[in-house]
Amino acid sequence: MSLLSVVLPSYNEEQNISNTVSVLSGLLEGAGIDYELVFISDGSRDNTYQEIQKAAKENPRIKGAEFSRNFGKEASIFAGLQIALGDAVVVMDCDLQHPPEVILQMWKLWQEGYEVVEGIKSSRGKEGLAHKLSAGLFYRIMSGLIKIDMNASSDFKLLDRKVVDVLTALPERNTFFRALSFWAGFRATSVKYEVQERKFGTSRWSTWSLMKYAIRNVTSFSTLPLQLVTVMGVVSILFSIILAIQTLVRFLTGTAVEGFTTVILLVLIIGGFIMISLGIIGHYIARIYEEVKGRPKFIISKATDNVQGNVTGAWNQNR
Ligand code: UDP
Ligand code: MG
């Protein structure tokens, strides 16, 4: 019988764990699916891990690990993918904003032979205006850059074992899970779902952390911003040719001297271009620097007994 793993990244979700466990285990047992739940506590500062341990004691199908500090949702997802043993793995939020019933649809599609099932949001649920605008802008930019429509995509997906093995074997540190499953290819399909409201607590993302997330993802997935630097260079060269001709003509006809406005504008424009370019290049150098250091994506400080192998510490690919 095939095993279904559900990976649940959780950061300060003590109020959600026990509810999520009972909802998911009820659902999957009801459907007669052999399952395991893999909770990754992302360096939570509340009792999330204790809640996971408690659940694991009651139900051996529940596994969990705790990070040594907050490494971010991407890291939690990848840790979960590495720990999961299922033939199919579903990644979902542990606040149940991703409706659990959809797992059954995904499972069915997987049994029909699909290797990637994307959860597509039919609406974005309730969000603040600022959040909506910034998320909208982020997805517009990302979709343009990586040529995949990201607006409705989410981290809610089912992946076949083959796909999980491909993704966990990637050597890169700066991953963007949402887009990587598109990148990986395989036989893919999607299911639509309605984003639910959060029962307990608030969104774990601040506008600032979303902004950092956006820049990180763009630079880890596309080199287009770097080419933008070239475009800016070309634009300023065109400007300077025109101005050079004009200046020479003025000089030769003896009407020079005037023109401080031009000088000031030129200094400002070119200065601006150069700084933006340096900034963009800087972001890429930062990514390269992080990749070159080769530090692990996450460090596991604790894990429940039913997690296979010695996973604590800086856990790398090879199990
Ligand atoms: N999360 C995480 N690490 C973080 C932030 C969030 O593992 O640093 C988890 C969180 O516990 C939740 C999921 O990622 O299960 C989505 O987070 P949240 O609900 O705060 O985001 P939203 O639903 O508002 O996009
Ligand atoms: Mg949520």
What does this structure look like?
By secondary structure, the chain is of the alpha/beta class. It has helices at 14-30, 48-58, 73-83, 101-111, 129-146, 161-168, 177-184, 207-221, 224-253, 260-293; strands at residues 3-10, 34-41, 62-67, 88-91, 116-123, 153-160, 188-194, 299-303, 313-314. The protein has a 9-stranded mixed beta sheet with strand order 7-5-6-4-1-2-3-8-9, with helices on both faces. Bound molecules: uridine-5'-diphosphate and magnesium ion.
In short:
With 319 residues, this protein is of the alpha/beta class. The protein is built from ten helices and nine strands. It has a nine-stranded mixed β-sheet with strand order 7-5-6-4-1-2-3-8-9, with helices on both faces.
**CATH superfamily grouping of the largest domain:** Spore Coat Polysaccharide Biosynthesis Protein SpsA, Chain A
Described by strand count, sense and barrel closure, the largest sheet is: 9 strands, mixed
> CATH fold name of the largest domain, please?
Spore Coat Polysaccharide Biosynthesis Protein SpsA, Chain A
Name the strands of the widest sheet in spatial order: 7-5-6-4-1-2-3-8-9
Shape: elongated
Number of strands: 9
Helix-and-strand structural type: alpha/beta
The amount of helix comes to 40-55%
CATH class of the largest domain: Alpha Beta
Mean pLDDT: 83
Which radius of gyration do the C-alpha atoms yield? 25 Å
Please give the count of helices.
10
